[in-house]
Amino acid sequence: MVEEIIRIENLTKRYISGIIKQKETYGALDVSFDIKRGEILSLVGESGSGKSTVANMILRLLKPTMGNIILLGKNIKEYKIKKYYENVQGIFQDPYSSYNFFYKVDHVLNQAISHSLSWVDIAEKERIISNTLEIVGLRGTETLGRFPHQLSGGQLQRILLARCLLFKPRLLIADEPTSMVDACARAEILNLLKKLKDKSGISVLFITHDIGQAQYISDRVIVMKKGEIVERGPTNDVFLNPKNDYTQNLLASVPSIYRKWA
Amino acid sequence: MAELVLKVEDIKGYYKGSFGTVHAVDGVTFDIYKGDILAIAGESGCGKSSLAELLTGSPMPMLHYESGQVTVNEIPIYIPKPEDKSKLGKWRKEQEKLSNQTRKDVLCKIIGYVPQSSQDSLNPVKKIRKFILDVMKQRVGTKPKKQIKRSKEDIKYDTLDGQKVRINFKEEVLTRVREHLEKLGLSGDVLGRYPHELSGGMKQRIVIGISTLWNPLILIADEPTSALDVTTQKILIETFMHLREMGIVETIVYISHDIPTLAQICNKCIVMYAGKLVEFNSMDNIIHSPLHPYSQGLIHSIASFNPDGSAETDLNSIPGRPPNLRDPPEGCRFYDRCNQRMDICKEEYPPFFSPNGNDSSRVACWLYKK
Amino acid sequence: MTFEKKILLEKPEEQERSSVSIMLRKVFQAIKLRYKTQFTLIMGLVVLVIILEILTKIPRLSDPFYSYKIGASYASNLPPSWDFWLGTDTGSHDIFVMILHGTRNSIYFGIGCALLSTTLAILLGVFGPFVGGKADTLSSFITNIFMVFPQLPFIFFIASLMKTRSWVTVMIIIGSFSWPWAARSIRSQVLTLRERNFIKVSKMSALGNMRIAFSEVVPNVLTYILLVFCISFGIGIITEAGISMLGLGDQGQNFITLGFVMWYHEPYNMSPHYYNIWISPGIVLVLIYLVFFVIQSSFINTFNPRTRENK
Ligand SMILES: Nc1ncnc2c1ncn2[C@@H]1O[C@H](COP(=O)(O)OP(=O)(O)OP(=O)(O)O)[C@@H](O)[C@H]1O
Ligand SMILES: Nc1ncnc2c1ncn2[C@@H]1O[C@H](COP(=O)(O)OP(=O)(O)OP(=O)(O)O)[C@@H](O)[C@H]1O
Ligand code: SF4
Ligand SMILES: [Mg+2]
Ligand SMILES: [Mg+2]
Question: Predicted ipTM?
Answer without folding.
Answer: 0.88
